[in-house]
Structures are given as C-alpha cells and as structure tokens.
C-alpha cells in the first residue's frame, strides 16, 4: 500500500508530493528542515523544500513515535527501542548516516546516554551480555568508538546520577550514587575519584 505526503501552502495547492511504497506511520521535522518519515519499510529523510527523498535506513522499520529522540543542538537523532533491553541507534538526520548502534557495541541494555559536545562525542552507559557495567564514548564525526571503560564501578548498584560535566577539552566529571569521578576524555581512564 502506497502513501502520499504533501506539503501545502496556505492557499491549499500542493508545493510538492512524495510517494512511499509502504504505510507511513509518523513524521517529524528537524530544526534544519529535514522531514523524518517513519514507514513500515524504513526510516526516510525527505527534503522539506521539494519533497525529494534524500536517504533511507532500511533496518529502522515499524517504529513508534516514542522511539524518536532528537539530540539537542546537533544534527543527530536517536532512535530508541524501549522495553526491557533498550537499544539506541544514532543517525545523522541530514545524511542518514548511522553513527552507532549500541547492539554493535556489545550492550545488552543501555541505562544512560549523554551527549558531550565539548568532547565531540556521545557517551553510553549500560550492561553487556555478561551483566557487567560498561561505559563507551563514540566520536560522532568519525563514527569511531574512542574508548570503552569496563572497570569504572566496583558494583552494578552504583548508578550515574547526573550528566557528565566537561572540565576541559579532554576531561569530564561524572557523579554516581557513591563517588565523583574525573575521567580522561581521550582514554576513559580515571584521573581521580572522591566519595
């Protein structure tokens, strides 16, 4: 079943039309003017000025509107599949490029996601398949995992309580239910910690 989206002027005549081969479930507009369209056969980026499909991500199918989570002050969008084992897929909304998938980073579930623009990255905290806590920093521009920290917390009961606070271009502070840590932003190594 095909679906047709139209952009109309106030007068009522269509400015453009875009046809999809699958049912359209929802649509969102990014601050940069890209129309994000979720259909049964994938996630699309449509140029809002002319209706031209710019990109498609095939594996992001049958999404609910609640899965869409724009990342403020960036061209990135998180698609978060919620439930018992949350999974995050970060895409560049301008190009459709997949920045990262937490499943590929060996996360069984993600507890927290933080954007740290000063470090140029996205920080994930959660648990792997062995139920061990891990923290991973991804560079959004290069699409590389910068580092993985698996020995930060002594116990799985230690929980991050606030967003990381960058204190330099290569360091940030993070607080948990037990400690405050200063981490090297380039390596993930603990520079100091304090109860």
User: Which spans of ≥5 residues are poorly predicted at pLDDT below 50?
Assistant: none
Alpha-carbon Rg, integer: 19 Å
- In the sheet with the most strands, the strands line up as 3-4-5-6
Binned strand content? over 45%
- Count, helices: 0
Distance between the termini: 59 Å
Order of helices and strands: EEEEEEEEEEEEEEEEEE
Helicity, in percent?
Answer: under 10%
Mean pLDDT: 87
Strands, count? 18
Shape: elongated
Biggest beta sheet attributes = 4 strands, antiparallel
Which structural class matches the secondary elements?
mainly beta
Written description of the protein model:
There is one protein chain. With 195 residues, the protein is mainly beta. The strands form 5 sheets. The protein has a 4-stranded antiparallel β-sheet, with no helix packed on it. It has a 4-stranded antiparallel β-sheet with strand order 7-8-9-10, with no helix packed on it. A 4-stranded antiparallel β-sheet has the order 11-12-13-14, with no helix packed on it. It is elongated. A hairpin with a 4-residue loop joins strand 16 and strand 17. The protein is built from no helices and 18 strands. It has strands spanning 3-8, 14-20, 24-29, 34-39, 42-47, 53-57, 68-70, 76-81, 87-92, 98-101, 109-116, 121-127, 133-139, 144-149, 165-168, 171-175, 180-184, 190-194.
SSE layout and pairing:
Layout: E1 3-8, E2 14-20, E3 24-29, E4 34-39, E5 42-47, E6 53-57, E7 68-70, E8 76-81, E9 87-92, E10 98-101, E11 109-116, E12 121-127, E13 133-139, E14 144-149, E15 165-168, E16 171-175, E17 180-184, E18 190-194
Antiparallel strand pairs: 1-2, 3-4, 4-5, 5-6, 7-8, 8-9, 9-10, 11-12, 12-13, 13-14, 15-16, 16-17, 17-18
